[in-house]
Amino acid sequence: MIYEMRRYDCFPGQIGNLNKLMEELAIPIFERLGMTFVGAWSPVVGDDESALIYILGYEDMGARQKAWDQFWVDPEWVGGRARYATSGPIVSKSNSMFLGPTRYSPLK
User: Fold this and answer.
1) Strand pairing category for 36-41 and 91-99
2) CA–CA dist 85, 101 (Å, integer)
3) Does domain 2-97 have CATH number 3.90.180.10?
């Protein structure tokens, strides 16, 4: 299993819209496309209150690529995401880190 940790930094005032978009639209599509949604977190200490971090799991990098290729053209995603960006763009920047479990990790 390979894990992808994604971090999204939002424009001011947009974290609520991102959380709604994730919960109501993106996560159901992830699951439908076979992406394993591990969890999502918001920083509780520091000045990162406009950040969202979440982890997805895949069998391998090929499965990841296939899932994201399907995600970006998914009619539900293409048609639905604009309703969450009613006051302008939501995400100012994003990045990903790919993680493989150690032999002692409870998540494999």
Assistant:
1) unpaired
2) 35
3) no
Q: What is the pLDDT of residues 30-47, one digit of tens each?
A: 999 999 999 999 998 887
More confident residue, 27 or 46: 27
- Amino acid at the residue 13: G
Residue for token pair 């939501």 = 90
Question: Greatest CA separation found in the chain?
Answer: 46
For the chain, the domains span 2-97
CA distance 108 to 89: 36
Cβ-based burial of 21 (10 A; exposed 0-12, middle 13-18, buried ≥19): buried
Dist. CA 18–CA 13, nearest whole Å: 10
